[in-house]
Amino acid sequence: MPAWLRFPLARRRARVGQITDGAYMSDLIDDPQPGQNLPEFTVAEISGAVKRTLEDQFSRVRVRGEVGRVFTARSGHLYYDIKDDKNVLACTTWKGQVSRLSVVPEEGLEVVVTGRLTAFGGQSKYNMNVEEVAVAGKGALMALLEKRKAQLQAEGLFEQSRKRPLPYLPEIIGVVTSPSGAVIRDILHRLRDRFPRKVLIWPVAVQGEACAREVANAIDGFNLLTPGGALPRPDLLIVARGGGSIEDLWGFNEEIVARAAARSEIPLISAVGHETDTTLIDYVSDRRAPTPTAAAEMAVPVRMELLAWVGEQQTRLVRALSARVDQRGQRLRDLGRALRRPETLLEGPQQRYDLMSDRLPTALMRGVERRRVALSEASGSLRPGLLARMLGQDQRRISNSADRLAPALQRAALAKREALGRRADRLTPRVIERDIAQGRDRLEALTRRLKDAGTRQTTAPRDRLEALMRLHETLGYKATLKRGYAVVYGDGGQVVGTKAAAEAAAGLEIEFADGKFKIGGTTRKSATKPKPPEQGSLF
Amino acid sequence: MTDLPVEEMSFEQAMAELERVVGQLERGDVPLEDSIALYERGAALKKRCETKLKEAEEKVAAITLDGNGQPKGTTPVEGL
């Protein structure tokens, strides 16, 4: 038997109450014989009966469980399961109902759903139409909050760098809160005390199921306004709510609110609950105020303090300027005192001028005077007598010298002449003559000896020569020739001594005592006279 | 020194500029002629600050919404 049928049928059975499980089932299924005393349903009838029974019996129930799988259909209807460790309850929230849910179911969330049970005959299924989802218990809420925080933090929405500075003095402050109640009054009072400003209130529900949607819409709505328009855009937003339970404040923990605050271009102060309550919007807002009053204090400076400050600046400005002027005046006076009087500037030079101009005429005269004295001194000693005396001296010196000149010359000449005389005495021709006579004698003697020696020397050789000549004449072949012998020469001029040589010679020449005779050939010598055979050996 | 005309400065800008001018004048390191110009600028800034401070007018209005939650106007809020 399918699980979804178990419970309604059990109820049905309890209502019918006449038959046992087994009998009923066997009768219904196994033996549907006509005529039996049992009502017969069509499928539509039984489906309708089941649906009616369910809706009658469970027209408004609260069921607690953990959200299982969640599915949003394209139609906008929301389908999800509520389950415990064994059982599952199919839940449906129609599109029109979804926007009214204070908590949108998320998988894993412990919730208490409120609605009625119904059945869907088309699939033989039953389910619960949920109109309200509430988070079950504080622990579950905190767990959900932590989960959202972790997610938004992971997206970087809590980064300090995202936080914009608040304007020092906003012109218009937009407040998102309930139009009635202590919160807006606290904010307005504190603003009035500090610095009255223009305030635009965007009324929202600050708790309950509409809260998150309205707050998010308000934040977005303020951002959509144009600066200086008919509805002027604020330059600072305060999202505020008084203290309450975590369930009361839950709207400010919703993701849509946090995301609207994060994307707000207008700087935003969150002031939700008391100081100890920290909601999701506090993490993404630009400043978190512990209370709405504190938010007002953050929003504007104190006007009276600023007025005092401006006054003080004014005083400082005047004092600074007058101090500057005074200071410079003093400095001017100091400098003026340090400046010497103009007349004193000229005193020194004037004095020097006076002194000099006094001395100028006398200086000229004195100069002339001094020169005149020098002139007269010089000219005083300049007389003709002095010159004559000087000339006289010179003349005397000249004549003196002239007087001494001639004797000096004579004296000198005399001395030289004496010296010459002395030398001339020694110079006589006798010595030379004697030398000449001696030389001549020696010459004559030597000449005689030379002649004698010459004669002696040539006589013997000449004698010998004559003897030899005579010998030569007697022994020579020429003398032989005179005795009738002849010498025969070849055509070469060579002596031909043999018959063979004479036959071999082309021509012969014969020398006789009275000359040569040539025979034959072209030879120069024709003497054919044979030489005596001993001719050679003779020499 | 910002180039923004004094008349267009926000209160905060005028305040910062005034503080700077006063400080500069007090330090006394500007020539006398400039001191006077600086004083005049300081006076104008002070006037601007005062003007902004005098604009302290309270006006509270609540936004009225149409059926879709969109703003359609304001109603004055009294007595809060």
TrEMBL record, chain A:
Domain Exonuclease VII large subunit C-terminal: from-to ranges: 157-518
Any GO BP: DNA catabolic process
Residue numbers spanned by region Disordered: 520-539
Major enzyme class: hydrolase
Reaction equations catalysed: Exonucleolytic cleavage in either 5'- to 3'- or 3'- to 5'-direction to yield nucleoside 5'-phosphates
Sorted UniProt keywords: Cytoplasm, Exonuclease, Hydrolase, Nuclease
Positions of the OB-fold nucleic acid binding domain: 41-133
Enzyme nomenclature, EC number: 3.1.11.6
Family: Belongs to the XseA family.
Assembly behavior: Heterooligomer composed of large and small subunits.
PANTHER family per the UniProt record, alphabetical: EXODEOXYRIBONUCLEASE 7 LARGE SUBUNIT
Functional description taken from the UniProt entry: Bidirectionally degrades single-stranded DNA into large acid-insoluble oligonucleotides, which are then degraded further into small acid-soluble oligonucleotides.
Descriptive protein name: Exodeoxyribonuclease 7 large subunit
This protein's encoding gene: xseA
UniProtKB/TrEMBL annotation, chain B:
Pfam families: Exonuc_VII_S
Gene Ontology CC annotations of this record: cytosol; exodeoxyribonuclease VII complex
Intracellular or extracellular location(s): Cytoplasm
Keywords: Coiled coil, Cytoplasm, Exonuclease, Hydrolase, Nuclease
Coiled-coil boundaries: 39-66
EC number(s) stated in the UniProt entry for this protein: 3.1.11.6
Catalytic activity field: Exonucleolytic cleavage in either 5'- to 3'- or 3'- to 5'-direction to yield nucleoside 5'-phosphates
GO BP annotation list: DNA catabolic process
Keyword Hydrolase: yes
Gene Ontology molecular function terms on file: exodeoxyribonuclease VII activity
Subunit and partners: Heterooligomer composed of large and small subunits.
Function: Bidirectionally degrades single-stranded DNA into large acid-insoluble oligonucleotides, which are then degraded further into small acid-soluble oligonucleotides.
Family named by the database record: Belongs to the XseB family.
PANTHER family per UniProt: EXODEOXYRIBONUCLEASE 7 SMALL SUBUNIT (PTHR34137)
Protein name from the UniProt record: Exodeoxyribonuclease 7 small subunit
Native source organism of the sequence: Pseudoprimorskyibacter insulae
